[in-house]
Task: structure prediction
Amino acid sequence: MLVIAVSVVAIGAIYVLTEPQPTAQIAKPLSEETAKQAESVRQPAASPAKPSQPAVAPKTVQVEIPADAFMAPQGWKGEKLFDDKFYKPNKVEIRVGDTVEWTNKDLITHTVTFTKGATADSGPFEQSKTWKYTFTKAGEYEYFCTLHPYMAGRVGVEQ
Result:
C-alpha cells in the first residue's frame, strides 16, 4: 500500500492519501495524535542545548617601540632585557584570536622576532611603521629586536 502524507496548512489538518479507494475513503483526516507523530518524523530532533559563553570579539592591542629604545643600557652584557623602555607595554595579556600591533616610534629601524612560541618575524620596520600578528594558539611568546638584541618583550595568550 502506497501512503503519502500531505499537510494542508490553510485548513490546519493533515490527510493521508492511499491507493485508489472508493471515493468516500480517498482522504481522511488523521487523529491529533497521529498528526503529531507525523510532524515529529518530518522535523529533526533538536540538539541538546550547549552552555553558552559570551562571545568575545577579537581585539587589537597596541605595543609601542618608544623613542630612544635603540640605546643599549650602560653595562649591557648580551642578555635580553624585558623592560617598558624597549617595548611598551613589555608584557601583553590577550586571548586566542586577538592581534598585537607594534608601532615603531623610535628614530631608527627595529624588528619583532619571536624566539619562543612562534616563528614569526616582522622584518625591519622604520619609524612610524607598524606590524601586526594575530595569535591563534594559547601559550607564552617571547620576542626581541634582531638589530638591538637587548630589546625583548612577551605576549601571554589564553584560550
